[in-house]
Amino acid sequence: MTGDADIVVVGGGILGCAAALRLAEGGMKPLLIEAGDVGQGASGVNAGTLSLQIKRVGLMDYALRGHREWESYGPAVGFRRTGGYTLAFTDSEADLLHARQRLKREAGAPIEFVAPATLAAAEPGLSDRVVAASFCPLDGDANSSLTGRFFRGRLREAGIPVHESAPVRALRRTGDGFAVETSGATFAAPRLLLAAGAWLKPLAAMLDVDLPVHARVNTVTVTERSAPLIGSVIGHATGLLTMKQKANGSILVGGGWQGRGTPQEGRGEALAESVAGNLALASFVLPALGAVRIVRSWTGFEAHVPDFYPLAGALPCVPNAFVLGCVRGGYTIGPYIGRLMGDFILGREPELPLFDPGRPFPEPS
Ligand SMILES: Cc1cc2nc3c(=O)[nH]c(=O)nc-3n(C[C@H](O)[C@H](O)[C@H](O)COP(=O)(O)OP(=O)(O)OC[C@H]3O[C@@H](n4cnc5c(N)ncnc54)[C@H](O)[C@@H]3O)c2cc1C
């Protein structure tokens, strides 16, 4: 059994990496264990949208601070602040857009409503059937495929040992902490942080804790490179579309359309009808997209609990064990909430409140 770490972090997604980095900054010795490669989970396959317009009102303070973290990472993660528009095409969509964006503006997001003519001047390629639009100058994106490389480098610079290709197979409480067993080795530490995304439930169960974690199978589609068609992040009032054109000309389309599969089975499978629905909406919004060829669609698992707020705090009934995950929009918010979690474990007062994993949850609908 090897063990000179102060804490073992299980899961090398954005949340686990950001927490480990904060713990090291604060003087602890973390050790990170990842089943595959750092950033191979949701953190490395997501759509990369950093949009305040699609964040939950209750998480806006976290998203605003998360944005600042991404900005500080800069070109190493492909960060771009392009601004973003969210569009409505019917009166009922316009009502929805106004109601939702007003609440987000009250929560601190600098969202304004713009006239269709202003939108058309800024983004001439979009459909002329827009009846209402909102704009947020802070919106932008980053390149999620760079997540692993970026955080692996940061962990190395911080001197944090990282064990990749090391799925945790067993967790045990010992007299003075935890034994964390992988196929190759067993690691011991007085503290434990579970940050395993959509795979949290079986890990917590190894310590007899039942976390109500569920997974959505989100789909993303990328096109071939095309001439410039849009310059900002484009969304739809219903939340069923996010679209941006990357610097190389390819267009990334998402919006939470569901694929098939479970985290235990592997990466999941894109469904033709889901991809077709997503692309039909995208081509309605951006008609020229209809002439651009699709290169690939893929899926990833996004974890959530029944109230759709994060799990971030002490693991119920297990002293010195912690859990961090299930953050809606966790690519945007991840770097910041990881720091908060690190502060909590270091015994510091976090700048914003965490989300008690032991709170009561509603029955899933
Ligand atoms: C397709 C898709 C699109 C998305 N688009 C956006 C977006 O545009 N903007 C946005 O803000 N958010 C987006 N999200 C959400 C965001 O990606 C996630 O909220 C965030 O990446 C979750 O980070 P995480 O560290 O909790 O989980 P993950 O990144 O999944 O990391 C968990 C890690 O734990 C590891 N692990 C699991 N089991 C074990 C084990 N037994 N032992 C060791 N390691 C283990 C996994 O291999 C994985 O690397 C999207 C999600 C998906 C799936």
UniProtKB/TrEMBL annotation:
**SUPFAM superfamilies assigned:** FAD/NAD(P)-binding domain
The Gene Ontology CC terms held by the record are:
cytoplasm
Top-rank taxon of the source lineage equals Bacteria
Q: Which InterPro entries match?
A: FAD-dep_OxRdtase, FAD/NAD-bd_sf
The record places domain FAD dependent oxidoreductase at 6-343
Extract the GO molecular function terms from the UniProt entry. oxidoreductase activity
Taxonomic source organism: Acuticoccus sediminis
Alphabetical UniProt keywords: Oxidoreductase
Q: What is this protein called?
A: FAD-dependent oxidoreductase
Q: Does the keyword Oxidoreductase apply?
A: yes
